[in-house]
Amino acid sequence: MKLVHTLLLFLRDDRRDEDVSMASKALRSLEKSGSKTVVVYNQGFWEREEAEDFLGRFDLDCVLIGSGENEGIVVGRQKCFEYIWQVLPDTEYISEIHMDMIFTENWDLPLINYLESTDEPVISCGIVDQNGAVSGLKQNLETLPADIEGLRECLNRWKRDLIIPGFTHPCIHKSNIMRAVGGYDARFMSGKQGFEDDSLLLGYYYYLGTKAGWKPKICCKSMVYHAVAGQRLTVSGNTAVNFSGLVKQYGLMGLKHLSELHTSQWHIDFFAENYKWL
What we know:
Layout: E1 3-9, H1 16-30, E2 37-42, H2 48-55, E3 61-65, H3 73-87, E4 93-97, E5 101-102, H4 109-116, E6 122-128, E7 133-134, E8 139-140, H5 148-157, E9 163-165, E10 171-174, H6 175-181, H7 196-208, E11 217-226, H8 239-261, H9 265-277
Parallel strand pairs: 1-2, 1-4, 2-3, 6-11
Antiparallel strand pairs: 4-10, 5-11, 6-10, 7-8, 9-11
Helix pairs in contact: 6-7, 7-8, 8-9
């Protein structure tokens, strides 16, 4: 199998209708992807039968795993990865997608084409967030269309034949390289969320060798709407726990390297300052 998507299905108890609507739009738009296989990790609050009924409404090949408990991003993603490695071992590429996304038709194909022609372990697509900011291009849209088709047309207009430094979600990983570095390690990333991407980026950085000076990249031939933490920011996440785990896993030099890997000024300043003072 060429590509399998991974998705964490999480519904906030106090905003369930909003989250169901958001997930429905994401999955409906995903139907026009090049790959329709999705490993879904149920993080609540639906029972398995309810979740299966919901996923069955879409023209996708969904595999549901997870007990319905919010075990956090690291555990959920890693369980998806491990399922793919064990049950679908011929999978070449694994995506990380979110419920607060809207996908354009065949958004995944330019990313796969790029990975097939390079030694890169992962590639991100360009995103437009809920504020109209276009990732990496330092431009903002004044308004975003409210309907899915209008939003898709807008995203298609913003596609560019550019590869730029940066990292976003959604992203697509080479399965064999991610398996070699271990994916997400819950022994260190034991909080619900925060810094898990950084741990994986460092794994790739060291896998490829510091001499190579690898940095993550964004392929602007693909553009996706991503609200960016529009849901998870409202949930307690233990980010401090994961930051502590990141330091335990990779040490202070890991923070130094992260300040060099990232392109966003917030990340550069955050990791540089913590490297200096910890």
